[in-house]
Amino acid sequence: MVEVKLHDIGEGMTEADINCYLVKPGDFVKADDPLVEVQTDKMTAEIPAPRSGVIKELLLTPGQTVKVGTTLLIMEDRSGGVQISEPKKVADVVKIEAEPAEASVAVLDRPAEVKVPVGVSARLGQILASPYTRKVARENGVNIMEVKGTGPAGRITEEDILAFVKLRDQGVASISEVGSEQEVPNVSKPASEPETPNVSEVRSELKEDRARIENKLSHQDILPFRGRRKQIAKKMVQSMYTIPHCTHFEEIDVSELIALREEIKGSGRSISATAFFIKVLSIALKEFPVFNAKLDEETESIQLLREHHIGIAVDTPEGLIVPVIRNVEQKNLNQIHEEMKRLTKLAQDDKLTVKDISGGTFTISNVGPLGGSIGATPIIQHPQTALVSFHKTKKRPVVTDQDEIAIRSIMNLSMAFDHRVADGATAVAFTNRFAQLIENPKMMLLELK
Asked: E strands within 280-401?
């Protein structure tokens, strides 16, 4: 018997919510088939089967929050005995080759030749595809065994699935038309071996059950408090109870930045205002490294971090998520702009990997484009030291240094910082430096390497 446990699928993960089981008792699964869908505070992931076997017992119920190391289910293995599944990273890739079959298999006379599409292991017929690609296949009703893989070693990608769907809808998709073929020996399958479950059917049944329950409660206007929403709540409570927050507000004149962006647009290129904000913050962090730091109370030390891994808060249908632009101190404005676009698109499509959302040292939130926000008291991403939020930009009459009234574009900024690590005067100096560069953006040229 094999105990499949919840293992750490992300940086420092300690627990996860059980979204749903993708199998039921009696189902036969192959190595790397998805068994359970879990939700962490950062992403949705699938726990794969560590080896081939038959599902014996599901030990938890959807909606439960469990710690890393908790047994999720028990499956029967050919080798017998009680075993514990080895931890495996779920993130983006799955093991390319299955483990050798441990039991001998009877062969009837001379085996016939069968054809297997590229992207499928000749030994066990294992599919080379990530959990997300498998999910896309299930949602589109695709038998992934019929799809040709164009990735490394014949790995099946999301684009392969979508191409197959397009051909199928045109009535021409088949193994011979979509997947390359190779000759492999046919090994007979034990007569008693159960069929692999249809995961999409299991998922559909679970969704139908959940819908029936929620329909009964619809007259009470009850929203489910689970998944990412629940994990966000835990993180926010942890931060508020751990960090003594202090929020500093500032007004920034962005008129010159707007003019510079229009000038850049005239040359046929476009750089977002947020990209400028991120780069200027990185320049300011070099001068005020205490805001790019972590407090270690056990060693009674403040770790000043050299790398600027800046998280950008993104609003998604599933809730807030913070992908990270890494090494901003080494990137130019165009690189920051393109990386921000890429990560935002992945966040909206729920395709972020663990690496995309891990290791942040400072966080920004730009709610200005949403409209209506003139200020807020943002909550710091524990264990970071600070967070800056950019708010709505409005044209206002301003008295200039020449005592003249002019119409300027003014943006509100709020900065939350850990008062254990820094004082208010340091925060004011930090935002003053930020304002100096944003209000005179060409001065950035003096700071760029």
From this structure: 293-296, 301-304, 310-312, 314-316, 319-321, 324-325, 362-366, 386-399
